[in-house]
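We store chain and fold; example below:
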Amino acid sequence: MLDQARRAVQLNIVFNRSATVGKLGRQSLTDQIVGEVRQRIISGQLPAGTPLRQEKLAAELGVSRVPLREAIRQLEAEGLVVSEVHKGTVVSSLSLAELQEMFEIRVQLESWLFGLAIPSMTEADFALAEAVIAESAASGVDSWGEFNWRFHSALLGASRRPVALKLLKTVHDNATRYVNLQLAVVADVEHELVDHRNLLAFARLGDVEGGVRLLRRHIERVADNLALSIGESRKAPPNVA
């Protein structure tokens, strides 16, 4: 018990060096690092192609390089970073085809999970989804990726398919960094919120067919808008001063 207490104190000292990481809670040190770096990637703070300088990042987070290397391996398994010859580890970049495939996976996996979830959703599930909608409406574009996942997972939790939900979160995380860019350009958050409110309404009615149909349209619309926006931005010539 004494060794465990000493270890807990050591971990809290390490992470209190950085205000960005927050409280340790019950998560392992590696999990905390994964969560922090993942959030920076998803939010766009670390855009595609950014090198992850381990020495600098370790100093910034106030951790040693051992748990940082473990965290980077996990992020690589999630597809968020990649190791490149002569470049080291960099934030990964998805091609337009890969991004479209991500949304194809979302359509199939989320539709299945939502169809399973609707008959089993309780008032607690509905209340949680409503709370997320209210928070996201007040927060705007900057935190949309986080709230979007929280809403979708609130709708899908009653499916009782934890493995599928874990796989789906990885897909969401990879796509969200591009969705954030799209929303920042077209300010389409209000349209997203309307869809979210309607999805919740179908769930409350127990209308599996209507809910699944709207969910598919919702995901496909986001994918189409994103493909158009990214396709145009990648074809655009660089600005010349």
